[in-house]
């Protein structure tokens, strides 16, 4: 029985968006307690279940209609959409709104000793990334040939480890790049957290709850501005 009368919201289990995602829902009046060992947290005062999962899984869960809402970085959403379009999987969802946290950028970066003029400096080189589709789109637009080095994590150590010449990774404060002797050369995508809804038809009561949550999100963000 995978249908549920309760609204399912997927949020990041741990990472850059997890605290603020929980905080936003609490500010909207959703009462819940997170048990670190548990995937699901049931709200006490509304028919809402929170699913705490890997950020990368959130867009797919929403696009497949497994959950009703998700809070996710636009970068992860964009990457998953491009990936799914390639393999003809459902790639649509409704972006309800951009949120006021999770700012980051997806950037190209190279070792400090690399002399970089423009993106052409990467012609023929190998680039490590967890965002192969956004990177490919950028490089195709510029007409640059490059080679992939697909890594789900630790992308920033790839050049020093001799796995790649440069990287394409998320930058927020820049501390990770600096700690790894890399500098940012090109921003290829700017991102914020956003809230997305599955485009499956909803029952009137669930849609009413979504509308209520969204109007509270709007109020919370307006009050924080
Ligand atoms: C990103 C990125 C770097 C870090 C950069 O990971 O991969 O590790 O943040 O942040 P900084 O510029 O402030 O040092 P993130 O935790 O967002 O995602 P992930 O755990 O899904 O890789
Ligand atoms: Zn991730
Ligand atoms: Mg990381």
From TrEMBL:
Q: Tell me if Aminoacyl-tRNA synthetase is a UniProt keyword of this record.
A: no
- Please give the chief subcellular localization of this protein: cytoplasm
- Molecular functions (GO terms): ATP phosphoribosyltransferase activity
Enzyme Commission designation: 2.4.2.17
Question: In its keyword annotation, does this UniProt entry include ATP-binding?
Answer: yes
The entry's localization annotation reads: Cytoplasm
Q: Which UniProt keywords apply?
A: Amino-acid biosynthesis, ATP-binding, Cytoplasm, Glycosyltransferase, Histidine biosynthesis, Magnesium, Metal-binding, Nucleotide-binding, Transferase
Give the reaction(s) catalysed. 1-(5-phospho-beta-D-ribosyl)-ATP + diphosphate = 5-phospho-alpha-D-ribose 1-diphosphate + ATP
What is the top EC class of this enzyme, as a single word?
Answer: transferase
The pathway it acts in is:
Amino-acid biosynthesis; L-histidine biosynthesis; L-histidine from 5-phospho-alpha-D-ribose 1-diphosphate: step 1/9
Which metal ions or organic cofactors does this protein require, according to UniProt? Mg(2+)
Q: Which family does it belong to?
A: Belongs to the ATP phosphoribosyltransferase family. Long subfamily.
Q: What is the recorded function of this protein according to its Swiss-Prot or TrEMBL entry?
A: Catalyzes the condensation of ATP and 5-phosphoribose 1-diphosphate to form N'-(5'-phosphoribosyl)-ATP (PR-ATP). Has a crucial role in the pathway because the rate of histidine biosynthesis seems to be controlled primarily by regulation of HisG enzymatic activity.
Q: Indicate what this protein is called per its UniProt record.
A: ATP phosphoribosyltransferase
């Amino acid at each position: 029985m995978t249908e549920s009368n309760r609204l399912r919201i997927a949020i990041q289990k741990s990472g850059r968006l997890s605290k603020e995602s929980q905080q936003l829902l609490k500010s909207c009046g959703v009462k819940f307690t997170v048990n670190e060992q548990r995937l699901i947290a049931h709200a006490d005062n509304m028919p809402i279940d929170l699913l705490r999962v890997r950020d990368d899984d959130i867009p797919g869960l929403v696009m497949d209609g497994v959950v009703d809402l998700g809070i996710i970085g636009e970068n992860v959403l964009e990457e998953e959409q491009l990936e799914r379009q390639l393999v003809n999987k459902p790639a649509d969802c409704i972006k309800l709104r951009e949120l006021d946290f999770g700012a980051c950028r997806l950037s190209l970066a190279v070792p400090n000793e690399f002399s970089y003029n423009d993106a052409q400096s990467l012609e023929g080189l190998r680039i490590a990334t967890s965002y192969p589709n956004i990177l490919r789109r950028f490089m195709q637009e510029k007409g640059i040939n490059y080679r992939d080095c697909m890594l789900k994590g630790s992308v920033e150590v790839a050049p020093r480890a001799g796995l790649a010449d440069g990287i394409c990774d998320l930058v927020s404060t820049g501390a990770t790049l600096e700690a790894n002797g890399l500098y940012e050369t090109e921003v290829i995508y700017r991102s914020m957290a956003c809230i997305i809804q599955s485009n499956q038809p909803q029952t009137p009561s669930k849609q009413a709850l979504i509308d209520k949550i969204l109007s509270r999100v709007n109020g919370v963000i307006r009050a924080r501005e």
